[in-house]
Each structure stands twice: as C-alpha cells, then as structure tokens.
Amino acid sequence: MAETPSADREQTAARNDNPAFRLMNAAIDTARLEADFDDERAGACVVFEGRVRNENDGRPVVELEYEAYPQMALAEGQRVIEEAVERFSILRAACIHRLGRLGVGDVAVWVAVLAAHRNDGFAACSYIIDEVKSRVPIWKKEHYRSGDSSWVGGQSDVTR
C-alpha cells in the first residue's frame, strides 16, 4: 500500500480552487461543502455520505483505516467525475474520500451532484460512488472489537 499524505494536507485531482475529486486526512465538513456546492440552474442537489458503521458481516467494527495510492487515486477519481458529467445531464459533481483512521459514524466519502432534474442527479451520484469503489486505488482496513483487523473491499462490495 502506498504512503498516505501528511495529516494536514488535502490532495486534489485538479489544480484549481474547486477540484472535483479530493483525498483528505481531516474530517469532511459536509455542511461547509454543501453550502459551497450551489448553482442557480440546479433543480436537484443529490448528496451521498458514506459513513463508518459499527458492524460488517456480523463482526463488530470499531474503526476503519483507509490508504491510497494518491497520484493514481486522484487521476482515476477525476476520470470518474468527468465520465459522470459526460454520461449524465448534470451541471457539476464532486467526490471527497477520507484517508487515515476513522471512527464509527465518521464520513468516509462524500459525493455531490447538481442537476437540473433529480433523476439525472441520482443516477450520476450512484454511478460516481460505484465507480470510485470499484476503480480508484483506495484500500479499507476494518478494525474489530476483538482486536484483530483485515483489509476488505473490492468490486464484490460495490452493491453493499
């Protein structure tokens, strides 16, 4: 697994003030993101927050740990966003994925889509999270109440 960026840095896929795909080591401030994510042409703002839950496959989970290959993750994540914009009738899309250790209830991934109509927004949002989970090199390690841990994920988990 590749080294994660330093805790005080945010890595972005684009070199502008509002990149479409980002990796963060700090908590995702969803309220701030949603306040800044606006367009008067949008009749729909669809937001997905992927959160750390307290169990998986019947095992009590106490925290998750995410690692990534940052350069490849940023490039592939940006491609996913660009594909969504081309494929669906949307105005804008963004995705932020956490790295590092997260506790139960923490937001691990945030996806937002602005569209003129809700159906396009929902379809694009679903596409983005599914593609990010299946294509972007981000790895998840579950830490269990029992003290053991294991790396999980991959394409088989996309529909869970």
Walk me through this protein's architecture.
It is a single chain. α2 packs antiparallel against α3. The protein is an alpha+beta fold. The chain has three helices and ten strands. The model is unreliable at 1-10, 12-18 and 155-160 (pLDDT under 50). β9 (138-144) and β10 form a beta hairpin. The chain has helices spanning 30-36, 70-87, 118-135; strands at 10-12, 21-24, 44-51, 55-56, 59-68, 92-98, 100-103, 107-115, 138-144, 149-152. The longest helix is centred in the middle third of the chain and has 18 residues, at 70-87. It has a single domain, classed as Alpha-Beta Complex (Aldehyde Oxidoreductase, domain 3). The strands form two sheets. A five-stranded mixed sheet has the order 1-2-6-8-3. Strands 4, 5, 7, 9 and 10 form a five-stranded antiparallel sheet that branches. 27% of the residues lie in helices and 36% in strands.
List the helices and strands and how they pair.
Elements: E1 10-12, E2 21-24, H1 30-36, E3 44-51, E4 55-56, E5 59-68, H2 70-87, E6 92-98, E7 100-103, E8 107-115, H3 118-135, E9 138-144, E10 149-152
Parallel strand pairs: 2-6
Antiparallel strand pairs: 1-2, 3-8, 4-5, 5-7, 5-9, 6-8, 9-10
